[in-house]
Design a protein that fits this description.
The protein is mostly helical and 320 residues long. Helix 6 packs parallel to helix 8 and helix 13 runs antiparallel to helix 14. It has 18 helices and no strands.
Length: 320
């Protein structure tokens, strides 16, 4: 559904990471909880890269307490809090970041995500004013802003927000979100966008699930089953797709893909997070995935993705 642009990924990765001294390469995070601000900062950076997010957040917040005027430290501190799933705690630190660097896109995105969950749609839009399209933070901001427009029952402006962020590698990703928006708003055009997303990526589980749900909910159960059969004929499976199939075979409507704007918008962070993580940047992925889980805490898909990246980094206790 989303193909990673390595330049965009690199720009965001540069926000979060600095080069580590050679001596830290094989060390454990707990060895580097120095009492000095600089020591805490280095320890936090190392822990962040290793996905020891609790250690990272603690060490970087230690550093931030004595370097409250240092934007580099503040930025990494609130990013680590987000990666540790403490999004609400990260918000005031993100606000401090904007006092130091008013154009910081990641801080704006965190603040806007909190506002979106609380359905303060005007605040979402105002928080994201001036955000460009230079990296995945900016693209995420554009989609979050579009969801806020949907919350204001202005879906056409939401679509225009998405169109402004479109490029060749994002067209299908944005078609998926347009389908989600239209489906949640009860607009018939949802079918057209879902079909476009499906035709461009027929073997992506979440795309298939959305398309099949819309088909079945509109009375096209046999067509929905045909799509599912084609998906499974490729040797593919997905728990949510299996769930929808069971409902259709039982003669029941599968229901909407998402029933609220925060729940639907969490798909943005799921898609970007997984794509970035698979491209080799799990610490960046964790920031996006935890923003998604903040919006939709009951998402099994997000919880599974987070656990997989933690297990791959041998953070087995945190993954459970």
């Amino acid at each position: 559904m989303l193909r990673i642009n390595k330049v965009l990924c690199a720009r965001f990765l540069a926000i979060l990471l600095i080069a580590l001294p050679t001596g830290l390469a094989n060390a454990q995070p707990s060895q580097f909880r120095f009492p000095s601000p600089s020591g805490s900062f280095l320890a936090g950076q190392y822990a962040f890269k290793e996905l020891s997010t609790s250690d990272a957040a603690s060490a970087l917040m230690d550093a931030a307490q004595s370097q409250w005027d240092n934007p580099a430290v503040i930025e990494r501190a609130f990013a680590a809090l987000v990666a540790d799933g403490r999004v609400r705690e990260a918000e005031p630190v993100a606000r401090r970041m904007l006092e130091l660097a008013p154009s910081n896109s990641l801080a704006k995105l965190v603040i806007a995500t909190v506002a979106l969950k609380e359905r303060r749609y005007a605040s979402v839009i105002s928080s994201l004013e001036g955000v460009g399209l230079s990296d995945f933070v900016d693209i995420s901001a554009a989609v979050v802003r579009a969801w806020a427009r949907v919350g204001q029952t202005d879906i056409e402006t939401g679509f225009k927000e998405l169109d402004r962020s479109a490029n060749g590698s994002l067209q299908n990703f944005l078609a998926f979100h347009k389908a989600l928006m239209a489906d949640l708003a009860g607009k018939p055009v949802a079918m057209d966008y879902a079909r476009t997303a499906y035709e461009n990526d027929p073997f992506m589980g979440r795309v298939v699930e959305l398309y099949v749900r819309i088909l079945a909910n509109e009375g096209n159960a046999q067509e929905a089953l045909d799509v599912l059969s084609e998906f499974e004929a490729q040797g593919l499976s997905h728990p949510s797709v299996d769930y929808v199939r069971q409902h259709i075979l039982a003669g029941r409507l599968p229901g909407k893909f998402a029933t609220s704007i925060p729940m639907a918008a969490s798909e943005l962070f799921q898609g970007i997070g997984v794509a970035i993580g698979r491209d080799g940047s799990p610490e960046v992925a964790m920031v996006f995935l935890q923003l998604g889980r903040y919006l939709h805490p009951k998402s099994d898909t997000l919880s599974l993705s987070i656990a997989q990246f933690l297990e791959a980094s041998e953070r087995f206790e945190a993954a459970n």
